[in-house]
Amino acid sequence: MYGKLGEGQFGAVYKLAIGGHVYALKKLKEVSHLDGKRLEGELRTLTMCADHPNIVKVITARIDVEINIQMEYCNLGTLNDYVIKNRPGEGTLNYFMLDMARGIHHLHRQRIIHRDIKPSNVLLVARAHHIPTCKIADAGLARLTFPFSNLATISYTYYMTTGLCTPLYVAPDVFTGHYSTASDVFSLGVLFYAMHSLQTFHVKNKTLLYPVLPQSNGMFHCASQEEIKRAVMMHVFNAQKADMVSSMLELQLWSRPGADSVESTINSLLRFTRKHDSCNLV
What we know:
The protein is an alpha+beta fold. It has nine helices and nine strands. It is 42% helix and 20% strand. The chain has a five-stranded antiparallel β-sheet with strand order 1-2-3-5-4, covered by helices on one side. Strands 6-7 form a two-stranded antiparallel ribbon. A two-stranded antiparallel sheet has the order 8-9. A hairpin with a 2-residue loop joins strand 8 (200-203) and strand 9 (206-209).
């Protein structure tokens, strides 16, 4: 086993070499309120949902003293670190957005809600002579951290104590205990905004994407719809993309598009961009 790749409240991730191949090993503290059968069921879900190019593949998952999850190793690290370091241009951001929308759409087709979409839960893999691929990580792991009873109280506690960035990305409906695919779409919308605004915060020698509303210096789930729209228009310059992100950030969950619609819109945007670029070359 190599060095530690990262650490959070519920465990740590290590780099692991087996038979000449490199993997990531996530070691989670066992959650006492989950019975063994339910825990095994959740871990089986993790292995089943990852058969997609934009989802981090889970190789094995087992319960010892800890919960051990062996996953594919993503050699470019987190989206948070990559975006801050490289400041990718508009074209690259569009492809990243498409990757993430595809990954979330796949989870939702499998009736899986991610529950914790944020820049540190998106990992990147290098491709020779191509834009890196984004992969959604930790799909389903948030379900292992708290029981389903009394969700409103537990959700508030979970999101306000599991790291600085997480509350910034959470949908307003989550704090009422209402989880749905629309909650993921809202979080993904905040993440899209964060990549374009490049607002950051420094804490403990770490720089984090820190998307707050410039008018009120507040979080999206506490803002008015007008504040959100103004913020998006300030940082997302393409009108079609700005409309899409604003729709993802609708405070009323039933007004948000599905992940399939988000994927379709980004595909349309990329097709137009490629066609425009081809015309300019003629």
